[in-house]
Write a structure and sequence with these properties.
Protein name: peptidylprolyl isomerase
CATH architecture of the largest domain: Roll
Number of domains: 2
Structural class: mainly beta
Strand content: 25-35%
Largest sheet: 7 strands, antiparallel
Distance between the termini: 35 Å
Keywords: Isomerase, Rotamase, Signal
Order of helices and strands: HHEEEEEEHEEEEEEEEEHEE
Catalytic activity: [protein]-peptidylproline (omega=180) = [protein]-peptidylproline (omega=0)
Number of strands: 17
Radius of gyration: 21 Å
Shape: elongated
CATH class of the largest domain: Alpha Beta
Mean pLDDT: 87
Enzyme class: isomerase
Pfam families: FKBP_C
CATH topology of the largest domain: Chitinase A, domain 3
């Protein structure tokens, strides 16, 4: 799958504008959370306060949509950051996947052009990785403790540069203001209660990190219908149709037993909308609880169909097996933020 165009996080109307572009995986759908090797080895950039960000007034009610007063026009050559509320949770690091509530404004106009919904199950998952999100968003949320509210004034070079945003929300050369509430750092594996394996399914063995090895039953024909079983039962929120989900997954071709796609090799979970994946993968997610691990057997008509996927080695008659750890789910706001 080709990389998405610059357009802030494809799961939100305008938060999609902060997406720097990422390569999708060939199998369940467009991934937005696999960090680069550089991100995994990186350290946080020292982003300090300054006159510009000190001039932005932000309410201190963590978890609620902020009241923000920007003495426009504001512009910076170097991104500035200030802690409005200091949380006492763990500190985010490069490569982490972080749940955040976000409000974003044009620094020249003070106009809000994007906002998450600030409610239960509405925080969005962002990977702390410059290769996927604009640098200013990463500077805002990296090395911040869970429970913190951060405000930043982001230089154009760390935002949309000399081109401005694709939809015209930010003019060329303009700075932006981001207010981010750091809700949580996601685990990298399902943390629920193990369930007895279901007869007839491939076997799944987990290493110390939770990375699964999937073994197809020898001399056994693939099922002709979708089959789904729970391997670890979670007790978190339930995935609804149209949600954005964050998962770890591994995909195996029944015919060969070979892995054709996975998030584990990328070093971090993947995020996408349930509408962006093949039908069988969607069926495996919707109705499941966060912190669960499921195994799904997907017949060709609910996978890649007669066309298959030659790049992934999938033929038109191939049945697929996925083991999926469901780490987070969030609803998609119905409308964009308002002024």
């Amino acid at each position: 799958m080709r990389a998405r165009p610059l357009s802030f996080l494809a799961v939100l109307p305008a938060i999609a504008l902060l997406l720097a572009g990422c390569a999708g995986s060939p199998a369940p759908g467009a991934s937005t959370s696999a960090p680069s090797a550089e991100a995994a080895a990186a350290t946080c950039v020292d982003t300090t306060s300054g006159d510009a960000v000190e001039s932005v007034e932000v309410s201190d009610d963590f978890g609620a949509a902020p009241t923000v007063d920007i003495p426009t026009p504001v512009s910076v050559d170097t991104t500035e950051r200030r802690v409005v509320v200091e949380g006492d949770g763990d500190e985010t690091q490069p490569g982490d996947t972080v749940s955040v509530e976000l409000s974003v404004y044009g620094a020249a106009t003070g106009q809000q052009f994007s906002q998450t919904a600030y409610g239960e199950g509405t925080a969005q998952q962002i990977t702390v990785d410059d290769s996927q999100y604009i640098a200013g968003l990463v500077r805002t949320i990296e090395c911040a403790t869970v429970g913190s509210r951060i405000v930043s004034v982001v230089a154009a070079a760390d935002a949309f540069g000399d081109q401005g945003s694709e939809g015209g929300e930010v003019a060329p050369g303009d700075s932006i203001v981001i207010v981010a509430d750091i809700v949580s750092i996601l685990p990298t594996r399902a943390m629920g209660t193990p369930v007895e394996p279901t007869d007839g399914f491939p076997t799944v063995e987990l290493d110390d990190t939770g990375d699964p090895t999937v073994t197809i039953p020898a001399d056994t024909d693939a099922p002709t219908e979708l089959q789904l079983a729970t391997l670890i039962q979670g007790d978190g929120d339930t995935v609804a149709e149209g949600d954005n989900v964050t998962v770890q997954y591994k995909g195996v071709i029944w015919r060969t037993g070979e892995v054709f796609d996975e998030s584990w090799a990328n070093g971090a979970p993947a995020s996408f909308n349930t509408e962006q994946v093949v039908a069988g993968f969607k069926q495996a997610l919707v109705g499941q609880k966060v912190s669960s691990q499921v195994i799904v057997i997907i017949p060709p008509e609910l996978g890649y169909g007669e066309a298959g996927n030659s790049q992934a080695g999938i033929e038109g008659t191939d049945t697929l097996v996925f083991v999926v750890d469901i780490l987070a789910t969030s609803t998609v706001p119905a409308t964009e933020g308002t002024d």
